[in-house]
Every structure is written in structure tokens, then in C-alpha cells.
Amino acid sequence: MPLSRESKESLVESYQGGVATAPNVFLVKYQGITVPQVTDLRTRVRESGGHYEVVKNRIVLRVIDGSALEGLKEHFEGPTAVAYNEDDPVALAKVLTDFAKEVPAIEFKAGLVDGQVVEAEEVKQIAKLPSREELIAKLLFLLQSPITGFVRVLAALPREFVTVLEQVRQEKEKQEAGG
Predict the structure, then answer these.
(1) Half-sphere exposure of 93 (CA within 13 A, CB side)
(2) Please, what is the Cα angle at 154 between 152 and 156, to 5 degrees?
(3) What is the DSSP letter of 175?
(4) What is the DSSP letter of 114?
(5) Which of 57, 127, 129, 142 suits a disulfide with 97, CB 3.0-4.6 Å?
(6) How many whole angstroms separate alpha carbon 154 and alpha carbon 175?
(7) Strand-strand pairing, 51-54 and 24-29
(8) In angstroms, how far is CA 76 from the centroid of its own chain?
(9) Beta strands of the chain (E only): which ranges?
(10) What are the b/e assignments for 39-74, b being 16+ CB within 10 Å?
């Protein structure tokens, strides 16, 4: 059933406001999955902070001209779904690869990570990376570690000084008592 002009215009607006401007996009071949599986995938993607849409290839091809997605033009063939987000490509890639393990009908076509085109095989490698939060936590630990060590050294100085003074006092008491 052909789309009406209003429906096409609505799709163009939707794509322009979402897919065409997203820095992180993964194209997926979804043929052969059931409606409950698609619903589950949409829920998982949404929980990771992303969006999942089945796109009309001809319309999306018109919208992506001049955008970073233009490098993925040749992958908009056949049934195509797009998962995208604005901030964390690793979380989105993890959700999609985990789902693809459960539902083998899902196949990656290609992707865009921070504006750079990635091939289908690379999506699985991206999913293995630590998440943004994990990387920040590791960085904070590394930054905090020298400071913590420095504070320990500074705290040890007065403690050691007091220990030395106590030993000097005890030595003087021995000398006075024996001397």
C-alpha cells in the first residue's frame, strides 16, 4: 500500500530530527523476526537511551544527503532498521549484539560511530569495549591513586615524627635514670 504525501512528509520530518542527526547509528537487517521480538528489541534499545526504527529506504536516502550517514547509502537496501543514540555507541552496540545472539535473524549491515563509518564486523568489537561510565570510573581511579598515595605519605610524616620524638624521650629517661 503506497504512502500518502502527508505520511511521506511526516517520515521525512521524523528522519531529519532523529536518524539523520544522530552521531551513533547501526543499520540492521531484521527480516525473519517476530513482532514480540521486535517489541523486546525496541524496549531494550529504549532502556539503553537509544531509538529503534524500521525505515523506508527511499525516503531516508533523500534525508541523509549531506549528513554523516551519507557514507552508509549502499547499505539501505532491503529490509532495514536503524538503531541510534546521541551519546553512547557502546551501550547501543551491546544491546544489539546481545539481542543478535538470542535472535540470529538479526544481522548488522553497517554503522556510524561518532560520525565515522564502521563495518558490520566492527560492531561486535565495539560492543566488547567498556562502557563510557566504566571508562570514566577507571580514569577517576587512575587520577585519584597518586593523590591518595601523596596524602598517605603526608599523613605518615607527622606520625613518624611523633614516633621519633617518643623514642628520644624514652632514651633521655633511660640516660637520666641510669646516669
Answers:
(1) 27
(2) 70
(3) H
(4) T
(5) 127
(6) 32
(7) unpaired
(8) 24
(9) 24-29, 51-54, 81-85, 107-113, 116-119
(10) eebbebbeebebbbbebbeebbbebbeebbbeebee
Give the pLDDT confidence of 48-58 residue by residue, as tens digits: 888 898 888 88
Task: List the grid coordinates of 167.
Answer: 623514642
CA distance from start to end of the chain: 112
Residue with grid cell 551513533, as numbered in its chain: 24
> Hey, what's the cell of 71?
557514507
Q: How far apart are CA 162 and CA 14, in angstroms?
A: 71
CA distance 65 to 42: 26
Provide CATH code, domain 5-129: 3.30.70.1730
- pLDDT, residue 146, reads 79
